[in-house]
Amino acid sequence: MRILDKYIIREYLKIFLVIAFSFSVLFLIVDISDRLPRLLNRGASWQNLTLYFILRVPYLMVLSSPVMVLLSGLFLMNNLAKHSESVAIRAAGISVFRMVSPLLIFGIFFSVGILLFGEYVLPSAEFHRKVIYKERIKNQKIEDKMARSHIYYVGKDNNLYYIGYFDGYRGQLSTIDITKYFPDSGIIRKKITASKAVWEDDKWVFKNCYIRTFDGDRMQKSDFYENVKVWYNKQIDNPHRKKKTLDDIKKDFFVPYKIKDLEFNEQEIDFNGQEDLQRLNLPEKGLRTISLKFKDIEKHIFRKAINIKAKQENSLFQFEKLKEEFKVEDTLLMDVLEELKENGEIYEPRAGEYKIL
């Protein structure tokens, strides 16, 4: 490191430490003046008050660090210009960028440091500050998230979960109740209850488990299991499910059809002989599938395929479904159908029904 770089960093750190100390004192004075009367009314001792406000410093440092870095750089540049040091540096043939490059490097390291500080030091300081405030000052017990009771919540799959007691230290649950229901009607379709559950091999093992299935208002089936393993299954799309929308069809669309291979037969006819002489015989190879794109299919074949598809029940290619998919108004749809009929592309076998030619 050059002498100039050491000098820039040294002067910058002096200013930065002064500003950091000033900001910390200023924020602490404001915080103490705001919180001290209420803490004293609760009977807090001076030892607890000192620890409480000292643990507040990491939060204030993370909060004000960007401003402190900026102000330190501005004051440094002002001091260099005030004593004509920046002019001397420029006269020595050193560019402005080279002059401030130590500050850029310091800024990068400081950003990484403040990030790690806020990730590891700040949460611990805030937790201990909360412990001092609730346990020592307010004389309240802090809720332990690893040991909780009477837990109610609704899962992502709209299932209702109730857990009587959760022991995260031992990996155990007690009094489990899981209710599956239809969101539209609110009717229960399945209920799972267990007296206990143990976390084993990355899954919950339910003990003394009942699984009841309901059909409307009455219970259809009830099964009892001493041990049931429960784990999370990630839902994936079924590739064989029926495609119901135009987007589903366009997502993975191909048209397979089968054609026969060519068959060659060459014979020599001898009118004087009893049998013909067969010189070449290439039998049929069988059938094979060729996938084509939409644009490679002749128009009449494509229209016939759509006509066949439209005959199926609940087919997307029916005019009512197409009208709903493309959000076409009735009047506009009728105009389009009339135009197609005039061009000879569709005909109307009965009133209100159209068929593709």
Summarize, please.
This protein has 357 residues and is of the alpha+beta class.
Secondary-structure topology with pairs:
Blueprint: H1 3-41, H2 46-54, H3 57-82, H4 85-91, H5 96-137, E1 147-154, E2 160-167, E3 172-181, E4 188-200, E5 203-215, E6 218-230, H6 246-251, E7 255-260, E8 264-268, E9 277-282, E10 287-292, H7 299-310, H8 319-325, H9 330-342, E11 346-347, E12 355-356
Antiparallel strand pairs: 1-2, 2-3, 3-4, 4-5, 5-6, 7-10, 8-9, 11-12
Helix pairs in contact: 1-3, 1-5, 2-5, 3-5
Spans with pLDDT under 50 lasting ≥5 residues? Answer: 276-280, 346-357
For the largest beta-sheet, the strand count, sense and barrel status come to: 6 strands, antiparallel
Which term fits the overall shape? flat
Give helix % range. 40-55%
Biggest sheet, spatial arrangement of strands: 1-2-3-4-5-6
Order of helices and strands: HHHHHEEEEEEHEEEEHHHEE
Beta-strand content estimate: 25-35%
- Count of individual beta strands: 12
Content-based structural category: alpha+beta
Number of helices: 9
Radius of gyration: 40 Å
How many structural domains? 3
General description of the model:
The model is unreliable at 276-280 and 346-357 (pLDDT under 50). Helix 1 (3-41) runs antiparallel to helix 3, helix 1 packs parallel to helix 5 (96-137) and helix 2 packs antiparallel against helix 5 (96-137). This protein is 45% helix and 26% strand. It has three domains: 3-137, no CATH class; 147-230; 246-356, no CATH class. It is an alpha+beta fold and 357 residues long. A hairpin with a 7-residue loop joins strand 11 and strand 12 (355-356). The strands form four sheets. The protein has a six-stranded antiparallel sheet with strand order 1-2-3-4-5-6, with no helix packed on it. It starts with a helix and ends with a strand.
